[in-house]
Amino acid sequence: MPATVPLTPLAHPAREEITVEAVLRALADPVRLAMVRQLAQAETEIACGGFEVPVTKSTLTHHLAILRQAGVIVGRQAGTTRYNTLRRTDLDALFPGLLDGVLAAPR
After folding, report:
1. Structure pTM?
2. Torsion, CA 10, CA 21, CA 87, CA 74, rounded to 10
3. What pLDDT, in 10s, does the model give residues 60-92?
4. Closest Cα to residue 67, out of 16, 106, 105, 10?
5. How confident is the model at residue 51 (pLDDT cuts 50, 70, 90)?
6. Torsion sign over Cα 101, 103, 64, 16
7. Are 7 and 23 in contact, with CB atoms under 8 Å apart?
8. Which residue among 39, 89, 91, 106 is least packed, with the fewest CB closer than 10 Å?
9. How far is CA 74 from CA 14, 62, 105, in A?
10. What percentage of the chain has pLDDT greater than the value 90?
11. Torsion, CA 10, CA 101, CA 93, CA 30, rounded to 10
12. Integer Cα distance of 29 and 31 in angstroms
């Protein structure tokens, strides 16, 4: 029987710790906004290497950390792969319409 790979959640703020200022600051960057748009359109989580953005791997990691620390995404580690999911439910509960408005804005 193959060994199971533990799924380790990455640090992110609890719902009640998310602030609108942090979310807006994180979404103000065009690369991060593109990543959030990709997550919003995805039917499942996206691995770190699965984002289509014109940045290096280290810069991508930096952008993911900012989004995670702001409470926009949640990440989990599975073996050597990190998976990311948009925290739509949390963001919609805290700031109704904000995410939809940002995602609907012209590029």
Report:
1. 0.88
2. -10
3. 999 999 999 999 999 999 999 999 999 999 999
4. 10
5. very high
6. positive
7. no
8. 106
9. 10, 14, 23
10. 84
11. 10
12. 6
What pLDDT score does 6 carry? 58
Alpha helices in the chain (DSSP H): 20-27, 30-41, 57-70, 88-94, 98-104
Residue 43 has a pLDDT of 84
Structure tokens at 87: 């925290």
Q: What is the pLDDT of residue 4?
A: 57
Which two tokens mark 45?
A: 């989580």
> Contact at 8 Å (CB) between 67 and 36?
yes
How far is residue 11 from each of residues 41, 51, 65, 76, 80, measured CA to CA in Å? Answer: 24, 20, 9, 9, 16
